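Researcher: Here's a chain I'd like modeled. Treat it as a single chain, no partners, no ligands.
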Amino acid sequence: MRLIFLGPPGAGKGTQAGFICQRFGIPQISTGDMLRAAVAAGSDLGLLVKAAMESGGLVTDEVIIRLVQERTDDPDCVNGYLLDGFPRTMAQAEALDEAQVVMDAVVEIEVPDDEIVRRLSGRRSHPASGRVYHLVNNPPKTEGLDDVTGEPLMQRDDDREDVIRKRLETFHAQTAVLSSYYSGQTNSGPVFIKVNGLRPIDEVKADIVGRLERL
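Model: Modeled as a single isolated chain. Structure tokens:
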């Protein structure tokens, strides 16, 4: 089961990816993890990645594709894998196809922008412990204070509404087009699965698992 997950930030991709990887016994492959591992290993690709990072530049799509190919050749990928955070753009999706990295299914979790803003902007955290609350879904016992220490809770900069809206703009400009790209590959490409991410977590999980099992 070789999978790609699509959806805006805050749609629940990470949560559902964890369920799917456990159910099918496959690793969740993050491009960020691959980049860090390549640098730590000191491989030829790792040296290219390190040079790009140190110069403040971007790691090229070609290098990332090569990392994906190397990583998916590892023994733990024999039963498949889930690509987390890749591809993000049309250029990356096309490069993946050109490299003949064959995928079985693309899962898109669909959530409207206003709900994404509600979910993310409502998060509050206790920096010292990492405890996370939500103003609506999981509020602290005392408004604005950590349940354990009583210390003030913080809102991360990337959870502010203006920042979230900008992230969504980037998503719609660069990543949302992948939905049309993969849903249009009815015969030759991976199976395209779109699910409603507004439902409870367990319902979304059951929907995705059920549809993947039928493959």
